[in-house]
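Hello everyone,

My group is preparing for a crystallization screen and wants a predicted model to guide construct design. The compound we'll soak is zinc ion. Before spending weeks at the bench, it would help to have a computed complex in hand. I've included the protein sequence and the ligand's SMILES below. Output in structure-token form would be ideal because that's what our pipeline reads.
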Amino acid sequence: MTCPACDLANKGELTGSYQANCDECTARQFANGIDLFNARKAGEMTPEYVAILQKVWGDDWEAGHERVKAWVKKKGKK
Ligand SMILES: [Zn+2]
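Reply:
Good plan to model first. Here are the tokens for the complex, ready for your pipeline.
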């Protein structure tokens, strides 16, 4: 499930737009977010980071984390 903003981001284009109802946009936002930054700095899943994942993906939060990581990788390629 993607949206025009994700399509742009997928092509490696910078986009500052996020669609509220798009899971991929949410993952993209988390990839750029402070909670992931802190978790990576700490070298572990912080309670704050797990909390935002659970808020969006519920019991599937680990799958959500995989999506966030995928966006981090894409970002790193640039
Ligand atoms: Zn999207």
